[in-house]
Design brief:
Layout lengths: L3 E5 L2 H10 L6 E4 L7 H4 L4 E5 L6 H8 L6 E5 L11 E4 L4 H21 E4 L2 E4 L4 E4 L2 E4 L2 H13 L5 H9 L9 H17 L6 E3 L2 E3 L1
Parallel strand pairs: 1-2, 1-3, 3-4, 4-5
Antiparallel strand pairs: 6-7, 7-8, 8-9, 10-11
Length: 209
């Protein structure tokens, strides 16, 4: 699926990009002066902002509340420092530089999204194999990450035999303490570092997060 770019720019700036859009590696959606709701924002992969339009407080407020998309800001006005942004580019810019910036931002955002999980007040960093909460962190194993992901994604208690089958590929009838051992060790790590005894909950129907 082609990447879509939402552009907040002045009329002349939008017109100039409209003329060269066929040479870009993404399709363009132009901001037309109306308020963009979350449904509109969900259709784009990144946002390009000509910071001069941020003199409009409505636009500035909307841009500064975008937390789910990479935001490329064109530097060049007194309101620049009021705008939140992921990266910046200077005008005039080379077309290939704009292409590269946007594609890199989208790729980086997708990678970061796939490499971390937000659970309760925690962030699970799958690259560094760590659980973080505020300024605290602990190292966890690859198997513990798989276990956390499984319990979190299921949204319901999972019995031991299902966990064994999905993570360790064991038979439904395998008799082993593997699950209990891993969950005990993980709970102990979390309790010691974060003083949290309710990260993984055990009920009559199984384990859940």
């Amino acid at each position: 699926m082609q990447n879509n770019l939402l552009i907040f720019g002045r009329k002349n700036f939008n017109n100039s990009l409209d003329e060269i859009k066929e040479y870009l590696d993404f399709s363009i959606v132009f901001y037309n002066g109306d308020y963009y709701d979350k449904n509109t924002l969900s259709t784009v992969n990144a946002v390009l902002v000509d910071c001069d339009v941020c003199s409009d407080l409505k636009v500035l407020d909307f841009i500064n509340n975008i937390n789910t998309k990479p935001l490329l800001l064109i530097e060049g006005s007194s309101v620049f420092n009021k705008c939140k942004h992921t990266d910046r580019i200077y005008f005039p810019f080379i077309l290939s530089d704009l292409n590269k910036k946007i594609i890199n931002l989208i790729s980086t955002t997708k990678f970061n999204k796939n490499s971390s999980i937000k659970i309760k007040d925690y962030t699970i960093d799958k690259n560094e194999k760590k659980i973080r909460k505020k300024n605290l962190s602990i190292v966890i194993t690859e198997r513990e990450i798989q276990l956390i992901e499984l319990l979190f994604n299921e949204k319901k208690p999972l019995p031991k035999n299902i966990i064994l089958k999905k993570i360790w590929k064991y038979s439904d009838y395998a008799d082993t303490h593997t699950v209990e051992t891993h969950i005990y060790r993980l709970r102990k790590k979390i309790l010691i570092k974060f003083k949290d005894d309710n990260f993984i909950i055990n009920s009559k129907t199984g384990y859940t997060i």
